[in-house]
Amino acid sequence: MKPADTNLTKTARPRYIGKGERCLSLGERRVLCYLRESKDAPGIWTVRVEIGRTERVKTSRINPETGKPIIAGGVPIRRRERLGFADDVHDADGKGVLSYEQAKKLAQNWQPAKEEPKASGCTFEDAIHQYRDFDGKKGDKVDRNKKMDHARLRRHVLRLTSKGKPRKGKRLVAHLPKPAPQDPPIAFSALPNMQVNDLTREILEGLRKSFIRDPATCTEKEHKASQASASRNWNSIRSCLENAKKHKPNGIKSADAWRDIKNLGKVGNKREASFTIHDMPRYIARMRQHGHHAEADVFEAWSHIGSRPGEELMSLRVRDFNARSKRIAIPRRSETVFSKSGERLTVLTEQGVAFFQRITAGRSQNAPLLSPDGTTFWSMRKERKHFKAVWLEAGAPEDAIPYHIRHAYASEWTMNGEDREVISGNIGCSAPILKDYYAKWEQSRLQQQIQKTAPKLALDE
Fold it and tell me: Facing residues of 50 across strands?
């Protein structure tokens, strides 16, 4: 559990605004949690109780020091319940708005529902419902991602709409693809009620295959898009089944059915840039010539720090930029901060500092760092097509996507000879991933260095 704070009274809570969840231990593996994202909204009280730990099992991996099998498992199993709002903005009423004392009393009395073993076993639908409250491996999965994963499973496995009604569509197949002609067909409608213990590798491979469109009936672009969608769906399905396997009451005997299936890999997600980072000033200048000044600021910000071109940078505020230390603080992931790699400090170049000083001059510390009008946040999901159109209008290659900027930035930095640990820490990825994606650039630089410095043998003919 997280380190416990000793004071969550009303007078002490303001210093926790925007600094993540604060926890107070109540003993017996019970914690009262408080989270307040901003001054404009009240904090939220929740209670978290540890009800046990996952089973400890021997693995096939050997500890090199002892020569014995490594023991895995023993991960805490926790249950969480939202109690209500804190009395930061409105007075406590003992129901929806709670004082510290009221929240503490409720937290001490709350008991999680008992999970009894199912006589009939856990079905695929049961596993999906359980997955709705899955907090992630590290316990920091935010609600929007929980909803997104559960919606994906509800739509593509249970085949239900957001209102719980059966989906309808011409492309919805009635049966799963058969691994062999002699195998009996499996109706898609039977899948939710199927026991997880009865799932086989062939059934799950057929399920994933059903998400991919037939290239004979669609364009190449649509086929690759369906492959990328199938990969995302499969990741959610596998995570859902792994979560169900951890719960002993489910009685799931083996996870081989899904663990033996190889991932599709990176499909429909081309990251190789057809331009260099030195081309970006020309594109940005043309955007400004066309009157797209706010959009140009977004592209320039991406180009200065190589951040992910999603809402990681767009969810930041002016206060996250520090001109004195020449850094931008990426807060930890939350309901309002989209940070894939977690909390980190990104060091800026002198040019980057000058740019962010210009766009933040005279603005409130709580204002968005990047904004279309100075007061509201950009929404990358809503404006994705707009940004692509603005970029193409500025002369970018037709196959260019904003993620190419990150790739071009990292590639240029890698070719300049910087240590991978420095680069990965600044742009927010792991050094092995950096090596895998940009190894070809290192090979190119290595070839140039060898040609330049290695001894050369010239024989006289």
Answer: 78
64-80 per-position pLDDT tens digit: 777 777 666 566 777 88
What single-letter DSSP state applies at residue 248?
G
Q: Which of 349, 340, 364, 356 is nearest to 300 (CA)?
A: 356
Render pLDDT for 4-14 as a digit per residue (tens, 0 to 9): 456 888 888 88
Map tokens 């593509």 to a residue: 156
Residues paired with 78 in a beta bridge: 50
Q: 0.90 exceeded by the pTM? A: no
SS3 386: helix
Residue of 240, 161, 170, 253 whose CA lies nearest to 207:
240
* Full DSSP string of 408-444: HHHHHHHHTT--HHHHHHHHTS-HHHHHHHHHHHHHH
Distance of CA 33 to the CA centre of its chain: 23
CA distance 77 to 51: 6
Nearest to 379 by CA among 333, 444, 313: 313
Pair 410, 430: CB distance under 8 Å = no
CA 428 to chain centre: 12
Question: Measured between alpha carbons, how far is 44 from 456 in angstroms, rounded to an integer?
Answer: 70
DSSP states along 115-162:
-PPPTT--BHHHHHHHHTT---TTS---HHHHHHHHHHHHHHTS-B-T
Is the Cα torsion angle 252, 253, 255, 257 positive or negative in sign?
A: negative
